[in-house]
Amino acid sequence: xxxxxxxxxxxxxxxxxxxxxxxxxxxxxxxxxxxxxxxxxxxxxxxxxxxxxxxxxxxxxxxxxxxxxxxxxxxxxxxxxxxxxxxxxxxxxxxxxxxxxxxxxxxxxxxxxxxxxxxxxxxxxxxxxxxxxxxxxxxxxxxxxxxxxxxxxxxxxxxxxxxxxxxxxxxxxxxxxxxxxxxxxxxxxxxxxxxxxxxxxxxxxxxxxxxxxxxxxxxxxxxxxxxxxxxxxxxxxxxxxxxxxxxxxxxxxxxxxxxxxxxxxxxxxxxxxxxxxxxxxxxxxxxxxxxxxxxxxxxxxxxxxxxxxxxxxxxxxxxxxxxxxxxxxxxxxxxxxxxxxxxxxxxxxxxxxxxxxxxxxxxxxxxxxxxxxxxxxxxxxxxxxxxxxxxxxxxxxxxxxx
Length: 402
Hints:
This protein has 402 residues and is mainly beta. The chain is 5% helix and 40% strand. The chain is globular and about 75 Å long.
């Protein structure tokens, strides 16, 4: 029974649909977003664990969340589902559904059954021990947040699917940067699908070396392997201008990458899943941020870089009640640098070509000279007179000229 519940929970992940400018229904293996036919809420995979309370016959679907608004889904990796046909046909077959480094078959050993209806929608079911259950949105109000379950019937258990494409008007994957510096925007990023930049002006980096108070970035040219934590640079903060092309697979390699990443930040599941969130630890982590006009990796991130979650409860003797315990946690699908006792509390992030690779402990690699962000030396002294507005490296520090 528990395996059935696990299957049904993750089975919410995949069912086919059509968008205005896309083909109708499941059209082959690939990446999709899934929406309830009635409530129009999209499915988000926000954890990779489930449980079944035998004493109360209770299903736990908190690992799956349902939210309205495609404009929010486009930059949230939790809404990206890879659907793979295992047997049967596109309209009536057995499927494996994958998201956030997990999937139906990997967790349960089962595949999900998907059957197309006459109106073009799909019903998703799973059977075990003679019992068949159908996934539905059990929240019938107009709330933005829905509730996955198996209790509803009729149209509430119908789903539509839209294939994600780079040039789709609304169903694409875009980057919403969280850091702004000198007219450029940055997003620490970690996802389970391989990809490459599709919009102009985007650069993708990872940290390949830490020396003294510096962390050097290495640029990825072309494909980014699945599960590779990176820092993405954009020229806009609009996700529609920062699009990614999702790939079925990639042979690229980034074995010297020092960054790590997290998939989930789900505060509803402290008791059920140790993977639901990752607490920020200043002794072992450094987070991308901006300090004094410089891009850094720091052990003291600004509040918008972490999320305060209720991660448990304690009994308060004064009020004689249980109260929530809040912790600073890494935001979902973000990258960070692992640290130890030897790691400086703040590391200057240096772009490729700046000559930091030969830095020795305690030295300053660029005590004189003006450099562009690409590492080109513009002047041998720190004189800024006559330089156009922009962001430069001056004497080893990032400097903004307005």
